[in-house]
Structures are given as C-alpha cells and as structure tokens.
C-alpha cells in the first residue's frame, strides 16, 4: 500500500473518463465528459496539453505507435498524430453515439463499437474502406484486438462475447454467460482484456470475479476473486509484462493480483474509479474516476523480496538506451548507463524462461540485490560515491522516503535536491513564458519559429515607461525588472559562455546598457536578482557574483552551501537560498544567507529556511520595505522576524491562504508576487491552473491574517478575531521597530510605531472588556500586563471598575508606573 | 413639472442607468493618477497595478480613455451566473441578484467586453435570466391587491418596468375597496 499522498490531477468534469498511455510511455492521454483530450507528459507535473475537438462527451481512446484516436457521443471518430496533437482528421462517422474503439496491432484498422448494431472496421489510411460486422441485434459496448493478431473480440450489450477471426472477418465463437449484459453508457466493463503476450483474456464475470479464459478451449483457466463486498467491476488492466492484473471496483477501489500466485498483492481505496492504465514497463498505475480526476500511483505494488523493479521491465530485448530514456531524465540515465546492460540482459534471460523462481532472480543476475523504487535511480554500494558527486536528480512534488518496510533491505539514501525557485517566472506555456512578473510590470518571451525569441517588457504604469520588445538571439532564460531597468541572463551553450545583460528603461546617457560574459567555461547563471544598487548572479560553478548596476564587479565568493535555489536583493541587502542537505526523513533542507553589501556585514549565515513538512519553497522575496518573505507549497506566507540579529531570525506565518473565506467555495490557488503595504499581492488562479495566464493577469491583494485562531469572518469583534488582530499588530510592530535605525528615526516611522501600538492596545482593551463581562479575572490581569501604553492601563482600570471588579482594579493599579 | 406624459409616472431606462453609475466598482489603473477630491467622494491616488474602488461612472470614463481596466464585480462571473440561472429556472421566487444588476451588467458589457471572461456566454445567460424574471414578474403582478404587492429581489430596472401598471392598478383597487367599504 503506497504511503504516499496521491496528488489528483483534475482532467475532466463529472462523467465517464478514459485514459491510455502511448506505446512508448511518454504521454498519458485522458478523455472525458468535458469534450477535451488531455495529454499529460509522463513524469512531469506540467499542465497537460488540451485538445478540443468533439462536440459531445468523449467515450473512448485508443493508441497506436504513431497516432491516437478518440470516439465520442457525437458519433465521430477522429485520429491525431501523437507528436502534433493539434492536427486531427475525422476518420469516420456513425449514426449513434460511439462507445469504444480499438486499434489493430499493426495500426491499420480501427474497430468501432457504437450504439448501432454493426461494428465497423475502418482502414486508417483509406477511410473509405469499411467492413461491417453484425454480431447481434443489440448495440455493442467494447471491442478489442488480441495482441497475437488473431482475434477481434466484441462485447455486445446483450451479454454475449463474440470472437471474430482477424484475417477473414468471420465469426469464430460466441460466449454466453461469460460477461454481464450492460447498457452502452454504463461504467461497468464487459470488455475482453487481452493478456499482452500469451493469448488469454480477462473478463469481469457475473460473480464479480475476474475470469481468465484461453482461446484454445474457450474455458476459464482460473478466476481471481476479490475481497468481500467488492462488486461492480469497472475496468481491468494487465501490467505490461502480463504478470499483474489490476481491477477497479466501482465503490471500493482497486485490487491488484499477481497472476502467478493468484493472490491479491495490493489494494487501493478510491471511490468511483472508472478506467485504469498501467504505465508501460513501470510499476505505475494511472486511473481516473467518474469525477474526472486522474491519479497516477507510482509503485502501486509495494516491492518485496519476490517483486522487484526488474519484474516490470520488458520481457524482450530492446535497445536499453532508448527504452530508458523515455521514462527517466538525463541525470538518472547517466547513472543507469553503467548498470543497464547487466541488469536488462539478466531480466530478459530470466523472464523469458517460463517457470522461473522469482525469488532467485536477484542472485543470478546481479552482483548485489538491489531494492529499487520506481521513481528513484538505482544505486548500489560502488555507485554511491559516484552518485554523491554527480548532480542528483531534482525532484518535482517531493515525497518523503519511508524506511519502515523491512523488506526494503539496504535502501540507500535518496538524495533529493530542491530545484531552483524562480519568483515571478513561469515555465513554458505553449511558446510563451513569463520571465518576470512583479508590481512594476511583466517581462515575457515568445519563442519564434526560426530559433530566436522575442522579449517584451510591459509596465503596469504606462504613464512612466512605454512597453517595448526586442528580438533575442541569446535566448535569455532569466529576467528581473525594476523601476529603472531590466536585467536578463542566458545560460552557457557550446558556442558561448553565460551572459548577463542589463538594459535601463530610460537611456539618458545613451550607452548605459551593458552585457558581460561569465568568465568560467560552462558557467551558467542559476538565479539572478536586481536591486536599486546591486546585481546578483548565482552560477553553476557555485560562485555568487555581485556587480553594481553599471556592471563592475563588487564582490565574488563561493557559497558554502550548494546547489543554489534562489536569490533576491533589496537596496544593499542580498538574500541567497541554497540546499542545505537532507533532513532526517530525507526531505531537502534549505538554508539562507542575508548580507549587506555596502557594510560588508553578514546578518544571517546559512540559517534554516522553515519549510513545512513535505513541502517546498515556491517563492522568496523582499517586501517593499526590505523584510524577507517566503511562500511555500502549503499556501502559507511567512515573514522573517529579527533577521538583523544573527541567530535570532524566525519565520512567522502571516497569511494562510487555505483559511481565506473565498477558498471555501471554490478551487483556487494563489501565485505569489510580492508583499507591499503589509498586503500579500498575488494572482488568483482558478481551478487547476498553476501559472498566470496571458495576456494581462490581474493582481489581488490580501491583508495579513495570522493563523493563530479559528477564523470568524462575520464577527470582527469576537474574541478570536480580536486576539488575531492583536497578534498581527504585534508582529507588524516588531517588523517596524526593527527597521528603525537607532538614532535616525523618521517622522513616518515614528507615526507608524505609535499607530501600531495604539491598535494593539485597542484590541487588548476590547478583550479586557469582554473578559470583565465574563469575570475571567486572571485573564484580565494577564491582558493588562500586555498593554503597551500607560493611558491604556488607566483605561483598563476604569473598565474593571465599571464592571465592579474592585479587586482587579487594585491589582491593575499596582501595574501603573510610579507616577 | 414639464415632463412628457410618459415620464410622469416612472423613470426612463436611461435615467435608471444613470443612477446606477454611482455604484462602486474595482478598477486596475494603467497610469498613476493623483487624488481627485470630488463633491460626493474623494477618489484616492491610483497607482498601478493596485486595484482602486471608484464609482462606476468614473470607471467607465477611464476605460473609455484607456487609462484603466475594469475588474468585473464578483457576481458577474460565469459560474455564479450559471448557478443563478439554475435557481431562476427552478424556483418561483426571484433569485438574489444585486439591486442594479441589469443596468450595471448592460453598462459593463457595452464598455468593457474584453475585461470579462467568456463574454458571449455571460450575455446569453443574462438574457435567459432576464426573460425568466420577466415572466415571473408578469405572473406575480396578478397577485396585486389594494394593500400590497410582494415581489422580493426585484431589480431596479424591473421595478421601473412594472411601476406604471402596478401604480395605477393599486390606486384603482384602493378606490374600489374604499367605495365598497363605505357602503
């Protein structure tokens, strides 16, 4: 049972949803009732590509090596090439809603099952070639081709399973009493799910069991029984090597059997699962519910002595490099390359031998028994040193590593590295991305067809600066924008070193723009920052390079902690965040350093960044008055207090977006921009959108609300609200007081301090009033002790006397400073 | 008064629209603008990209001059309108819409369709809601008696539409009842 929390992907709206992996396992396609096809990239958390084509809910999807095909209730069948999904061709039309389609193994024919009584076979290259099969007088629900290219199975709504010969198109056999008789739009399955290699097929029979029948004698070889109370099978799927079979039950969830032992090896509880798909050659099961939600469950079967990673590898020889590349990314591939040939050859040898004792598998094939997780890379003792030196794989949505399972012998430390955080920037959305989005304006780049990009710099305040754009050959990846100018940087390529380029908005001296190359070879900037006096560049070589705004180097040092995560700057202050090793449970820890460049003083050196448990950093920035704030993946905004004193810094939550009133009624997320005027500026993202949209997103501001008491929005004078108000003002006061330079207090700052103190006392007095009415004497005294100003203490005394609490009034009197 | 006959009994739609201009709405200014002390209210300093709360008439004027963008009010969004439409279809009562919904929606849809998401769909839904309410108002008018007519949640423009008929009817009924009581 996977202990990981599965992150649902919202793919469609309520209704029947279907999914399919492409043959090579790079994409996962889902279709559903909201008329779009979503194409998810396997292994990435990016927003899926959406293809909008049909007019009615889409009911089926089938994939071939190069194309995929969808069918819908609008009675059309369309095919799309996998690589360029915006192109599509209408393959065929029926007269009634289509329920299921299937590609033949060679990809030349598509079988269409619809509410019509005929099953049509259409040639994909020449759609005019159509064969019609009429197995029964009822509509048909499912079609499937057998992998050995011999049979076409048709499940009709009358409960009979028909088998046609693939070549001659003649009826070979029909089976009654094998499948249930279901309506065309039911979510129960009556499909014959073929085993990937051995010519058997699985069906859901009337006793809620999965029966596996063979095509030799058309009798059940064996039956897999689910647990008690499991009924209504909605889908069945074989794993790619045919060893495991997963079945989903409408109300109960998913059960997975090991067909060798006929035992249940895994169960997952989710309700309303309607479709399943195994990721090709991986221990990952994806499934969708009829709420339109997609779940990807990695390591759906827990590994144990007899089940290892190798059991999911392909059973025939394939070029290792190619096969691995589609599932992993480059860093893992490096690590794999050494072990690939050994491991796969052994896997091949063993699995193709029919009666293999899988318990012996490891000893035969490899030097050391390896316990592996489908998501991590393989490391054995020798490789451990090598692995430490290579750049470990950065992770998306980090999951904590668990150590309890005794069967995971010698599980080695998984080096999870926090990936760099770019505040204000988004990944590519189509051919555009934001490079910097803040209160001054936004910078975005558009990828043009002939290899260069166009960068546009736009301002929110059009009266000061006009927007401009320029062509960019250097492909800038990072940018920063402030009132005076914009800073860009590009990574190092084979032809050119890393570049930093600064462009002022108003060029009064004609040549104030400058560009410089990073001196070391292969040195690319990871993170850049711009403030009113400095330019900060953190590079892949581990250096922090600080330049002035006119481009001359002020300072350079190598960071004690690597790799870098983020950097930010405000006037002379520079904040650098880097990875600081792993916590006890394997989650990455981040550290930060705050330095004043002009005074050459380090305020905080490698102090810990307070991430939530199993969370990651989404944004870190300075507010408009120079206090650091961070926003994490739990949706909490935290301010850094007491950072000017080494060792005293604390991260205090000032806003929890999960508590916001508006969050309760809708699904929203908040993309952080900055903090100004003690308000959190962010962009509201509706639904499952993760990044701001084009063209001009609107900002929303939220005032702070410390998550210390239960939120009562309708009662601003209730006790919890007052308590929160009081605490909020205390925190704001702390921030203000610390910003005051001793001996150089400005009028405005003084005013601010007084105002905040007055607010605190006002809230406290209201609380004292309430406590007096309830005669909570201890509390009254405690609250009075927290009052900041003498007149307030007198006021508290008066309140106590008003309530005839003379005892308390006297005690308050002793608190007054000697007159 | 020297009003034409038609206007003596009730307001004209343009007048109602004019009155709706005083309602506050959020805008996103595109330029920094100074404070504007007016008679009814002082318009605060506007600094992009911060939102600013101004009267609708000013918002429309600024939008016309391309100096601000309008942030559509909360109730004018697709999902909210869809649920209101469902309510309108199912219930006999009028669903809860802001008092000046029709005028405000009309003004906004004309002035800033580019600031509203799915503007065509919104237009369609508003039309459906308006028609449903109109038919309900017509049916509800039949229940008028000399003392009261209770039609909750009716919008300003809608009240204005039935005002002449309702006023006359109620007056006459009152007179009739009065006469019959005297006897």
From TrEMBL, chain A:
Keywords: Nucleus, Repeat, WD repeat. Residues 722-815 form the WDHD1/CFT4 helical bundle domain. WD repeats lie at residues 226-267. Residues 9-294 form the WDHD1 first WD40 domain. Pfam families: Ctf4_C, Mcl1_mid, WD40_WDHD1_1st. PROSITE patterns: WD_REPEATS_2 (PS50082). Residues 419-708 form the WDHD1/CFT4 second beta-propeller domain. InterPro entries: WD40/YVTN_repeat-like_dom_sf (IPR015943), WD40_repeat_dom_sf (IPR036322), WD40_rpt (IPR001680), WD40_WDHD1_1st (IPR057646), WDHD1/CFT4_beta-prop_2nd (IPR022100), WDHD1/CFT4_hel (IPR048591). It is found in: Nucleus. GO terms for biological process: DNA repair; DNA replication-dependent chromatin assembly; Okazaki fragment processing involved in mitotic DNA replication. This is DNA polymerase alpha accessory factor Mcl1. GO terms for molecular function: chromatin binding. GO terms for cellular component: heterochromatin; nuclear replication fork; nucleoplasm. It comes from Schizosaccharomyces cryophilus (strain OY26 / ATCC MYA-4695 / CBS 11777 / NBRC 106824 / NRRL Y48691) (Fission yeast).
TrEMBL record, chain B:
It comes from the Eukaryota. Residues 75-176 form the GINS subunit domain. Its main location: nucleus. Keywords: Chromosome partition, DNA replication, Nucleus. InterPro entries: GINS_A, GINS_bundle-like_dom_sf, GINS_Psf2, PSF2_N. One of its GO terms (biological process) is nuclear DNA replication. Residues 12-70 form the DNA replication complex GINS protein PSF2 N-terminal domain. The keyword Flavoprotein does not apply. GO terms for cellular component: chromatin; CMG complex; GINS complex; nuclear replication fork. It is found in: Nucleus. The keyword tRNA-binding does not apply. Belongs to the GINS2/PSF2 family. Component of the GINS complex. This is DNA replication complex GINS protein PSF2. It comes from Schizosaccharomyces cryophilus (strain OY26 / ATCC MYA-4695 / CBS 11777 / NBRC 106824 / NRRL Y48691).
């Amino acid at each position: 049972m996977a202990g990981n929390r599965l992150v649902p992907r919202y793919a469609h709206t309520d209704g029947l949803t279907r999914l399919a992996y492409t043959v090579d396992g790079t994409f996962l396609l889902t279709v559903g009732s909201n008329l779009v096809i979503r194409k998810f990239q396997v292994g990435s958390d990016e927003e899926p590509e959406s293809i909008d084509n049909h007019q009615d809910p889409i009911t089926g999807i089938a994939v071939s090596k190069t194309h995929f095909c969808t069918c819908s209730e609008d009675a059309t069948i369309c095919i799309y090439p996998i690589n360029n999904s915006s192109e599509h061709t209408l393959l065929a039309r029926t007269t009634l809603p289509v329920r299921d389609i299937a590609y033949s193994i060679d990809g030349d024919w598509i079988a269409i099952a619809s509410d019509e009584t005929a099953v049509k076979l259409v040639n994909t290259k020449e759609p005019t070639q159509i064969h019609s099969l009429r197995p029964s007088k009822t509509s048909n629900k499912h079609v499937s081709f057998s992998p050995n290219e011999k049979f076409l199975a048709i499940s009709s709504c009358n409960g009979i399973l028909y088998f046609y010969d693939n070549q001659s198109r003649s009826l070979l056999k029909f089976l009654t009493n094998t499948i249930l008789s279901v309506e065309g739009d039911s979510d129960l399955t009556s499909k014959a799910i073929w085993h990937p290699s051995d010519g058997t097929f699985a069906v859901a029979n009337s006793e809620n069991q999965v029966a596996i029948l063979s095509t030799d004698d058309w009798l059940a070889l064996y039956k897999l029984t689910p647990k008690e109370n499991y009924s209504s099978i909605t889908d069945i799927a074989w794993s790619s090597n045919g060893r495991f079979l997963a079945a989903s039950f409408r109300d109960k969830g998913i059960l997975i059997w090991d067909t060798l032992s006929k035992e249940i090896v895994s169960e997952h509880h989710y309700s309303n699962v309607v479709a399943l798909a195994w990721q090709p050659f991986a221990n990952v099961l994806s499934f969708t519910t009829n709420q339109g939600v997609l779940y990807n469950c990695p390591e759906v079967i827990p590994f144990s002595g007899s089940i290892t990673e190798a059991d999911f590898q392909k059973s025939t020889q394939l070029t290792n490099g190619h096969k691995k590349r589609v599932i992993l990314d480059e860093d893992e591939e490096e690590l794999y390359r050494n072990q690939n040939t050994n491991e796969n050859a052994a896997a091949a040898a063993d699995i193709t031998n029919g009666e293999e004792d899988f318990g012996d598998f490891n000893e035969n094939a490899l030097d050391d028994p390896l316990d592996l997780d489908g998501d991590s890379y393989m490391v054995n003792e020798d490789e451990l040193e090598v692995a430490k030196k290579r750049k470990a794989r950065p992770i998306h949505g980090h999951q904590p590593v668990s150590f309890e399972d005794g069967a995971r012998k010698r599980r080695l430390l998984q080096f999870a590295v926090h990936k760099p955080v770019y505040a204000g920037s988004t990944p590519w959305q189509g051919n555009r991305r934001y490079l910097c989005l803040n209160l001054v304006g936004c910078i975005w780049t558009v990828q043009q067809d002939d290899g260069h990009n166009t960068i546009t710099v736009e301002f929110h305040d059009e009266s000061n600066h006009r927007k401009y754009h320029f062509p960019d050959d250097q492909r800038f990846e990072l940018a920063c924008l402030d009132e005076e100018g914009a800073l860009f940087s590009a990574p190092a390529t084979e032809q050119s070193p890393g570049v930093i380029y600064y462009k002022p908005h108003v060029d009064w001296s004609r040549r104030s723009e400058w560009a410089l190359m990073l001196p070391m070879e292969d040195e690319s900037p990871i993170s850049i920052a711009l403030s009113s006096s400095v330019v900060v560049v953190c590079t892949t070589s581990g250096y922090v390079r600080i330049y002035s705004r006119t481009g001359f180097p002020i300072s350079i040092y190598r960071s004690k902690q690597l790799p870098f995560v983020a950097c930010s700057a405000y006037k002379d202050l520079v904040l650098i965040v880097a990875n600081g090793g792993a916590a006890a449970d394997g989650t990455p820890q981040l550290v930060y350093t705050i330095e004043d460049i002009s005074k050459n003083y380090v305020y905080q050196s490698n102090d810990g960044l307070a991430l939530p448990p199993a969370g990651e950093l989404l944004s870190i920035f300075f507010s408009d008055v120079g206090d650091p704030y961070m926003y994490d993946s739990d949706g909490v905004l935290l301010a850094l207090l007491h950072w000017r004193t080494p060792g005293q810094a604390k991260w205090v939550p000032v806003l929890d977006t999960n508590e916001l009133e508006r969050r309760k009624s809708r699904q929203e997320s908040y993309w952080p921009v900055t903090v100004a005027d003690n308000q959190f500026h962010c962009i509201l993202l509706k639904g499952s959108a993760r990044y701001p949209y084009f063209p001009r997103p609107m900002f929303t501001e939220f005032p702070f609300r410390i998550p210390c008491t239960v939120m009562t929005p309708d009662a601003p004078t209730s006790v919890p609200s007052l308590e929160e108000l009081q605490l909020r003002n205390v925190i704001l006061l702390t921030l203000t007081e610390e910003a005051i330079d001793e001996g150089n207090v400005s009028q405005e700052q003084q005013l601010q301090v007084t105002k905040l103190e007055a607010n605190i006392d006002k809230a406290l007095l209201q609380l004292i009033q309430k406590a007096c009415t309830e005669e909570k004497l201890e509390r009254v005294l405690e609250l009075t002790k927290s009052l900041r100003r003498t007149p307030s203490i007198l006021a508290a005394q008066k309140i106590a006397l008003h309530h005839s609490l003379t005892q308390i009034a006297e005690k308050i009197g002793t608190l007054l400073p000697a007159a | 008064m020297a009003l034409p006959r038609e206007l003596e009994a009730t307001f004209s739609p343009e007048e109602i629209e004019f009155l709706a201009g005083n309602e506050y709405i959020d805008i996103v200014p595109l330029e920094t603008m100074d404070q504007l002390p007016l008679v009814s209210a002082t318009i605060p300093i506007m600094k992009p990209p911060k939102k600013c709360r101004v009267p609708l008439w000013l918002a429309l004027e600024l939008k016309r001059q391309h100096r601000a963008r309008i942030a559509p009010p909360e109730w004018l969004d697709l999902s909210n309108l869809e649920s209101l439409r469902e309510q309108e279809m199912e219930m006999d009562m009028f669903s809860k819409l802001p008092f000046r919904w029709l005028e405000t929606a009309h003004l906004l849809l004309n002035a800033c369709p580019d600031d509203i998401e799915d503007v065509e769909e919104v237009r369609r839904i508003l039309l459906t809601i308006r028609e449903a309410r109109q038919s309900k108002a017509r049916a509800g008018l039949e229940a008028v008696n000399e003392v009261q007519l209770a039609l909750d949640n009716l919008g300003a423009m809608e009240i204005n539409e039935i005002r002449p008929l309702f006023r006359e009817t109620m007056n006459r009924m009152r007179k009739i009842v009065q006469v019959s009581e005297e006897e």
